[in-house]
């Protein structure tokens, strides 16, 4: 039995396409970032978030990426081990730390962002024209906003 909305969209097929596209894009970006910069996509995303949100905490990263605190903390540990990020005392809450990029981390994320943007443009731009890409982007913004507003899919621990 097909489950469809009023617009006759096959939602299970839509979900499968969405997940497979995300996985393939993520893997392609992962391969390019690893080859050019020695990092994987998850590290790039953490570094970019920390660059764009100075003073973020592990909990802020976890909330942004909808992953558990433990996994996020381990990811930050790896960034620290590489010398790309540091934890600093949080003057407002002694139980948490504020995260910051090192100079090496800033240089890395800035260089990797050029690769990331070029790869995305190649992967998506060669397939979707401007109108299609714009419509897809608007649909995903709307869906993500509703999911985040209602805290759907947020990790519980």
Question: Any overview of this molecule?
Answer:
This protein is mainly alpha-helical and 157 residues long. The chain has 6 helices and 2 strands, in the order ααααββαα. β1 and β2 (97-101) form a beta hairpin. The longest helix has 27 residues, at 11-37.
Question: Briefly, what is this?
Answer:
With 157 residues, this protein is mainly alpha-helical.
How does the SSE layout of this entry go?
Elements: H1 11-37, H2 41-52, H3 58-65, H4 69-81, E1 85-89, E2 97-101, H5 103-125, H6 130-149
Antiparallel strand pairs: 1-2
Helix pairs in contact: 1-5, 2-5, 3-4
Largest sheet, strands/sense/barrel = 2 strands, antiparallel
Strand proportion, as a percent range, falls in 5-15%
Total beta strand runs: 2
Please provide the ordered H/E string of secondary-structure elements. Answer: HHHHEEHH
| Mean pLDDT across all amino acids | 91
Helix percent reads 55-70%
What is the count of helical runs? 6
Which structural category do the helix and sheet elements fall into? Answer: mainly alpha
Low-confidence regions: none
Largest sheet strand order: 1-2
Distance between the termini: 35 Å
Cα Rg? 18 Å
Shape descriptor = globular
Supply the key terms:
157 residues, mainly alpha, two-stranded antiparallel sheet, 6 helices, 66% helix, 6% strand
């Amino acid at each position: 039995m097909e489950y469809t909305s009023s617009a006759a969209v096959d939602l299970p097929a839509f979900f499968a396409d969405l997940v497979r596209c995300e996985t393939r894009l993520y893997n392609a970006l992962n391969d390019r970032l690893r080859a050019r910069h020695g990092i994987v996509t998850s590290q790039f995303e953490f570094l970019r978030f920390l660059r764009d949100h100075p003073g973020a905490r592990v909990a802020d990263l976890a909330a942004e990426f909808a992953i558990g605190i433990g996994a996020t903390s381990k990811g930050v540990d790896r960034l620290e081990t590489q010398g790309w990020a540091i934890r600093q005392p949080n003057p407002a809450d002694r139980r948490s730390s504020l995260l910051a990029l090192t100079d090496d981390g800033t240089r890395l994320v800035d260089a990797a962002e050029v690769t990331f943007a070029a790869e995305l443009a190649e992967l998506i731009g060669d397939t979707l024209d401007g109108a299609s890409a714009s419509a897809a982007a608007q649909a995903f913004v709307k869906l993500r906003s509703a999911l985040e507003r209602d805290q759907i899919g947020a990790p519980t621990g």
